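Lab notebook, bench 4. The sequencing result for the construct came back, and we need a structural model before the next group meeting so we can plan mutations. Quick request posted to the team channel:

Model the 3D structure of this chain.
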Amino acid sequence: MCVPSEAGNAVVKLLLYAGRDVVGRRLAARVRPLVSAEALVHCDTIEDFVRCLRRPLDGEALVIAMASDLDVFQRLLDISGLMRGVKTVLILPDRNAETVSAALKLHPRYLTDIDSDFLDVAMVAARILSRASAAEGRLPPGDAEGGVP
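Done. Here's the predicted structure in token form:
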């Protein structure tokens, strides 16, 4: 469910789009420790994801979107305009060259596939989130490297 942030509370948000199946739960378990509960929004349907993307993000945000199959991937491509300008980590349903080529149109910061253990996703997300936090003045510059808990 998409929950709006409290007014004046600029927090680097993590918007996770992944199903509640085994793979989606595994991804969520990897990235959940990276942000506070208030900063994490987990959307498990494309409709909820679209609603969240249409709301003001109130500052920095990172989207991690998992396409569990080619139909879901096509739906992500269909809403690419809503993700324009948002830092995105994309998890693809396969490593097919056509899929990867189409995914690059979304301008992700990082690409991997659904067969990943998602440790790489957590490491990239931690770095993006810590840099965004430092840029917003919440961390001293020396602490901006981040890490995976």
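Strands lie at 13-17, 40-43, 61-66, 87-92, 110-113.
Will bring this to the meeting.
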